[in-house]
Design brief:
- GO terms for molecular function: FAD binding; oxidoreductase activity, acting on paired donors, with incorporation or reduction of molecular oxygen, NAD(P)H as one donor, and incorporation of one atom of oxygen.
- The protein is α/β, with parallel strands linked by helices and about 725 residues long.
- Among the domains are: about 50-115 and about 160-255 and about 360-385, FAD/NAD(P)-binding domain (3-Layer(bba) Sandwich); about 565-715, Glutaredoxin (3-Layer(aba) Sandwich), CATH 3.40.30.
- The strands form four sheets. Strands 1, 2, 7, 8, 9, 10, 11, 17 and 18 form a nine-stranded mixed β-sheet that branches. The protein has an eight-stranded mixed β-sheet with strand order 5-4-13-14-15-12-16-19.
């Protein structure tokens, strides 16, 4: 069997959009063949050789991250990808704090990204200008001093193109013994079941049958000019196959939200000369360019390499992709630069449509078919929520699938994935639309309102203009846009012209008040909270909706409310070793097993609870580790007391706070709790339960209630199983 390795040449090449496709037509919802997941025997050993525990459809970043997380948790999985090669189009590029925290758990992936990306000073700004060599209308620095201090997170945000991230993820999978197979290198793979740790390129999922005990997916493979079919049996199928998800269509799940917000053409090109000029003169991540000849947004993916993507408004059917040939795109680029360059190399030209939609369901067919990433939600790119939300979907989902596969939880644990992640997707949709509309406020202030342009286009398409010949429609549209761009002439747009002066003042106000397009949203990035799901809400807490998004940057405020991400604090691990490592509280959570973390203070009331948590977790077939968090200034001799109190426990750790200054808050103050409290953390670093100021009653009974609620298993079921 020929295996395609992970050498760089195996990652080269673009999606071949011209290949023939077998179309998958979804049956009506009431005709989908389905059957519920049987918890008792779905993962029995006799299925092991013929039924794959998890099949992931879609080898983008979300699917690859999910494959890594599942494999690290001991769950066998394989990945199907309809494209024959991995795309080299840069696509998403901003990685937020929470996603970088997830990547810290993947064998130094976060460190690799940070060392490989361009220096932050080359991408921290958005620049608004008449051309790249012309007047600067304004700029916004999106990095604040606290973003580098690592007070609220152990890692900073990153600017790293998607295809580079994909290559890094593939290297991680290679280290986990995954192999990539092309459709030309199968040689017998079609005649045996998948055993896990395979990535199959050129395989398009064309049908899904969830009738039987397992899910049967059929993949179409083009071999020697003919389509062959491969049947794959799995217990769980996860669709991570992007905004146009075939899996979502096959199972008949609809999207809800705003469609067709904007049509654009994406032009991927290289120019080291342009990159070097911008490094020297005006470094930035995004350049919003407005002049009388052209309008566009330039994304600087890598100034050092001279890699860019230009986003241009697109108005079909009056315009077609034939209007954006490489030569025409070169001329557009020159108009936006303000001069010609000799080394422009147009790599790829793609049309795309901006939507803001969320799937009606994330989990269906008896909890056996699941959507994640863009398959479950598609946002405007403003703020970079698309890929980041998808990565966090995978992080939420992985430990739950592992809990089911390992017999820790019933299939209902997968329902909590939708309960938790869908509200976040809806919230992020609203926020990204707000951010997109903020971006539109800049051209509107300059007298060039995109809403007016879109309204004119709609009138031409659906109103009286629709009866006119296309050629005449095109002339009218071009004429209106030419008149509109005239608002950007230097004669009009200057301080000496009263109207121009007013518009420039309005533009300055937008920038000063933070009303333009934003890059970072710390409050939403780190502060999102699950209100219900695999958690135990505080008995006295109100489960009100989160504060609605404002579209502006807000600072993150740490919280230990159930459903929140565990706050970050540097702690020193106390051990018998001479070197005592400083780590984040997030590092206390294991990434290679389904293990809960109980954080307690070194007080007498905490010891019985620690023993109870470990004992009950074991009864629930899970595991729990105890962390004793000591106050800053604790000396080693005092810690010996916890060794006596926890001597019978197999897994516990002593850590001590590392304060940045004498006035820094203590751990329990950050959490707004007393040192008689306790926090139980899930494998995805979100808080499952907390006790603010001491337990009342039997700790064993309380822990049984807690684990029963989180995992969806009644204590009586545990005892019946053990007997």
């Amino acid at each position: 069997m020929k295996v395609l390795g992970f050498a760089k040449k195996s990652l080269n090449g673009l999606h071949n959009d011209g290949i023939a496709r077998i179309k998958a037509h979804p049956p009506p919802l009431n005709q989908i063949r389905r059957r519920g997941l049987s918890d008792s025997n779905v993962f029995n050993g006799h299925q092991e050789d013929t039924v794959l525990p998890v099949l992931i459809v879609g080898a983008g970043p979300v699917g690859l991250v999910l494959a890594i997380l599942l494999t690290k948790l001991g769950v066998k999985c394989a990945v199907l990808e309809k494209a024959k090669t991995f795309s080299k189009h840069p696509q998403a590029h901003f990685i937020n704090n929470r996603s970088m925290e997830v990547f810290r758990k993947i064998d130094r992936l976060a460190e690799e990204i940070q060392s490989s990306q361009s220096p932050v000073n080359l991408w921290r700004k958005f620049i608004y200008c008449t051309s790249l060599t012309g007047s600067v209308l304004g700029s916004v620095d999106h990095m604040h001093p606290q973003d580098f201090e690592k007070v609220v997170s152990p890692v900073s945000v990153a600017h790293f193109s998607q295809y580079k991230l994909t290559a890094s993820l593939l290297k991680q999978l290679e280290d986990l013994s995954f192999h990539v197979y092309t459709s030309q290198a199968l040689e017998g793979l079609n005649h045996r079941p998948l055993k896990g740790r395979e990535i199959l390129l050129g395989h398009e999922c064309v049908s899904i049958d969830a009738t039987g005990q397992c899910v049967k997916a059929t993949a179409a493979v083009l071999e020697e000019g003919k389509y062959m079919r491969k049947n794959i049996q799995c217990n769980i199928l996860v669709g991570t196959d992007g905004a146009g998800s075939t899996v979502r269509k096959l199972v008949g799940i609809d999207l809800r939200g705003e469609r067709n917000l904007q049509n654009l053409v994406s032009v991927h090109f290289l120019s080291r000369d342009l990159g070097q000029y911008l490094i020297n003169e005006r470094p930035g991540m995004l350049f919003f360019i407005f002049n009388t000849e052209a309008i566009g947004v330039l994304v600087a993916h890598d100034l050092k390499q001279g890699e860019f993507v230009l986003q241009i408004p697109f108005y079909p059917p009056q315009q077609s992709l034939e209007d954006f040939t490489p030569k025409i795109c070169e001329k557009l680029i020159f108009k936006l630069i303000g001069q010609e360059l000799s080394d422009i190399d147009v790599i790829d030209i793609k049309p795309w449509v901006m939507h803001a939609e969320v799937a009606e369901k994330f989990v269906c067919n008896g909890n056996r078919i699941i959507l994640a990433g863009d398959a479950a939600h598609r946002f405007p790119p403003a703020g970079g929520f698309g890929m980041n939300t998808g990565i966090q979907d995978a992080h939420n989902l992985a430990w739950k699938i592992a809990s089911l596969v390992k017999g820790i939880a019933p299939s209902s644990i997968l329902e909590t994935y939708e309960m938790e992640r869908k509200p976040i997707a809806v919230f992020n949709t609203t926020l990204s639309v707000q951010n997109f509309r903020a971006a539109m406020g800049v051209p509107a202030a300059l007298g060039l309102d995109p809403a007016v342009a879109n309204s004119v286009h709609q009138i031409i398409n659906g109103g009286v203009g629709s009866v006119l010949p296309y050629g005449l429609q095109r002339v009218i549209l071009d004429g209106i846009f030419t008149v509109g761009r005239a608002q950007l002439s230097e004669y009009l747009l200057n301080e000496r012209n009263p109207l121009g002066s007013l518009r420039l003042a309005r533009l300055r106000s937008i920038f000063e008040e933070g009303k333009s397009l934003q890059l970072q949203f710390p409050a939403e990035d780190l502060g999102f909270r699950y209100l219900k799901g695999a958690l135990v809400p505080d008995s006295n807490s109100s489960l009100g909706a989160p504060e609605p998004p404002t579209g502006r940057r807000r600072d993150y405020v740490p919280s230990a409310d159930p459903g929140s991400r565990l706050p970050h604090m540097d702690v020193r691990v106390l051990s018998d070793l001479s070197s005592e490592e400083i780590i984040s509280t997030l590092d206390l959570v294991s990434s290679d097993k389904v293990e809960f973390l109980l954080i307690i203070a070194p007080v007498d009331e905490s010891w019985p609870l620690a023993h109870a948590a470990v004992k009950v977790a074991k009864e629930f077939k899970a595991s729990a580790k105890v962390c004793v968090l000591w106050p800053n200034g604790t000396v080693r001799g005092i810690v010996a007391g916890s060794k006596v109190a926890l001597t019978t426990l197999e897994d516990y750790v002593n850590v001590v706070e590392v304060k940045r200054s004498p006035t820094s808050s203590s751990w329990w103050d950050i959490c707004q709790m007393t040192d008689k409290g306790a926090i139980l953390v899930r494998p995805d670093e979100h808080i499952a339960w907390r006790m603010k100021s001491g337990i009342v009653g039997d700790p064993i009974m309380e822990m049984e209630r807690v684990f029963s609620t989180i995992l969806g298993v009644k204590p009586t079921q545990i005892y019946e199983t053990s007997n």
